[in-house]
Design goal:
This protein is of the alpha/beta class. 35% of the residues lie in helices and 20% in strands. It folds into two domains: 280 residues, Aldehyde Dehydrogenase, Chain A, domain 1 (3-Layer(aba) Sandwich), CATH 3.40.605.10; 195 residues, Aldehyde Dehydrogenase, Chain A, domain 2. A seven-stranded mixed beta sheet has the order 14-15-16-13-12-18-19, with helices on both faces. The structure holds 2-aminohexanedioic acid. This is aldehyde dehydrogenase (NAD(+)).
């Protein structure tokens, strides 16, 4: 078909047989997704809902199933149920809540295969990455179980005699989760696993582009909650377009909104939540670069850069969008990367031979094509041609070829996050500081990386004067973060941190206590107030 495909993309399937060919039928059965026609739930209770949202697979264009949108009345019932559940759940000892999350993690271990397949089929990422996403859920559950015994506060010395100060952490309430299509299950679990051990209850509005993933997750957790005699309202899902999101962001009953998506969306969410003094955790767009220095090892650079750029078909927040290459090694690195693109096999992501699946939908394909056009208009030099794949196996119209374009960092299109496999190559000369300036010279600040064997360069990249991103890696790519670290970024990425480290603190409210165990009442700052 095309040279970019290599010769091995022979496994083609027809639209009607994909589900059975790759065990999708069985997977849907195992996940309780046969004949679903609902999308609003407080646990084991499902509500009929309003309009239908159809979920078509970008893999083969087939209709996987339908959910319904949440009506305003149902939304209010969900929030009231969650508020009630919070009263019970926050009173449960944190390690017991951890036990619930442990059971959830174990269930995910059992269902890794069907859930990974569903992620792959509904969203389009490769099966390996679908399984990886479920593994990320399991990992955060394990992390949260340990955390459930470590929601530690501290004791602070008081300046007054006979006084002691403490800081403790209390449950917050309802956590509203708005998630994107690209990580349709993992990002929800980053939030829920932590929120639950913290004693919060969760209301999730998943992406309309991957709604069945949310129903599958809800089925799994609802069973665990029921087995443990826990009330409805601890895990809720709602569905719909931005109006449902707006109900959440304006709702003073939801103290924390955790939103993942575009900077455009985050700007609206952040503002709306701030207006009512709610808290928001924003994980927005990235424009991630790898700096490739003269001492970089090509064996590390090539897989790191290529997986970063084409993994999840360039639809990760952490996808590599820019390579900033030292002029002395530019030709060698460029040729190696371009050569590696020849090996990429594009096709049905459920077939493990394929590296890259489709984009999420035709709108995404249009954005990808427009970005390539724009880069050309601005003077970009195309090294690996993009384009939409046609023919057998590509009937959904969502399969595109990963492209490589030589470009300047100042191009408007390069400054912009396009959720597609387009990699921009640019040169730097002189010191690593020049590369860092280019790397930081965008509005976003999620992930970054440097490839170097020179210790001083690595440390300069990681120093206060180095990368301005929330994630800065050495000798690995920009994507594929582990759950143990705090995940998120600066500038237009929104400033939020999810997942590991002390990200749990955002799911709780901090309280400072001063206790006087003396018989006097000395005032702080030595103030005298004698009556
Ligand atoms: C996202 O793209 O929103 O670091 C999340 C990564 C994954 C998570 C990405 N662990 O690429």
């Amino acid at each position: 078909m095309d040279s970019v495909l290599g010769g091995s993309n022979k496994k083609t399937i027809t639209m009607s047989t994909v589900a059975t060919d790759y065990g999708m039928d069985k997977a849907l059965q195992q996940l309780g997704l046969k004949d679903v026609n609902h999308g609003t739930s407080t646990g084991s209770t499902w509500y009929p809902g309003g309009e239908e949202i159809a979920s078509y697979s970008p893999v083969d264009g087939a209709l996987i199933g339908k959910v319904t949108t949440t009506t305003k009345e149902e939304y209010d019932t969900v929030i009231k149920t969650a508020q009630e559940a919070f009263k019970t759940f926050r009173a449960m000892p944190a390690p017991q809540r951890g036990e619930i999350v442990r059971q959830f993690g174990n269930k995910l271990r059992e269902l890794k295969e069907p859930l990974g397949k569903l992620v792959s089929y509904e969203m389009g990422k490769s099966l390996q990455e679908g399984y990886g996403e479920v593994q990320e859920m399991i990992d955060i559950c394990d992390f949260a179980v340990g955390l459930s015994r470590q929601l530690n506060g501290q004791v602070i010395p008081s300046e007054r005699p006979g006084h002691v100060m403490r800081e403790q952490w209390h449950s917050l309430g309802i956590v509203g989760i708005i998630s994107a299509f690209n990580f349709p299950v993992a990002v929800w679990s980053w939030n829920t696993a932590l929120a639950w051990v913290c004693g919060d209850v969760c209301v999730w509005k998943a992406s309309e582009k991957a709604p069945l993933c949310s129903v599958a997750c809800q089925n799994i957790i609802a069973e665990i909650l029921k087995e443990n005699d826990l009330p409805e309202g601890i895990s809720c899902i709602i569905n719909g377009d931005y109006t449902v999101g707006e109900w959440m962001t304006k709702d003073t009953r939801i103290p924390l909104i955790s939103a993942t998506g575009s900077t455009r969306m985050g700007r609206i969410v952040g503002k709306t939540v701030a207006e009512r003094f709610g808290k928001s955790l924003l994980e927005l767009g990235g424009n991630n670069a790898i700096i490739i220095t003269p001492t970089a090892d090509l064996k590390v650079v090539v897989p790191g850069a290529v997986f970063g750029a084409v993994g999840t078909c360039g639809q990760r927040c952490t996808s590599t969008r820019r390579l900033i290459i030292h002029e002395s090694v530019y030709d060698k690195v460029r040729d190696a990367i371009v050569g590696a693109y020849d090996q990429i096999v594009i096709g049905n992501p459920l077939d493990e031979k394929n590296h890259v699946g489709p984009l999420i939908d035709k709108d995404a394909v249009d954005m990808y094509l427009n970005a390539i056009e724009k880069a050309k208009e601005e003077g970009g030099n195309v090294l690996v041609e993009g384009g939409v794949l046609e023919g057998e196996g590509y009937e959904s119209g969502c399969y595109v070829k990963p492209a490589i374009i030589e470009a300047e960092n100042t191009y408007e299109i390069v400054q912009h996050e396009t959720f597609a496999p387009i990699l921009y190559l640019m040169k730097y000369s002189g010191d690593v500081e020049n590369a860092i300036e280019i790397q930081n010279g965008v509005a976003q600040g999620l992930s970054s990386a440097i490839m170097t064997n020179e210790m001083k360069e690595a440390e300069r990249f990681l120093s206060f004067a180095g990368s301005d991103c929330g994630i800065a890696n050495v000798n690995i790519g920009t994507s594929g973060a582990e759950i143990g670290g705090a995940f998120g970024g600066e500038k237009e990425t929104g400033g939020g941190r999810e997942s590991g480290s002390d990200a749990w603190k955002v799911y709780m409210r901090r309280q400072t206590n001063t206790v006087n165990y003396s018989d006097e009442l000395p005032l702080a700052q030595g103030i005298k107030f004698d009556l």
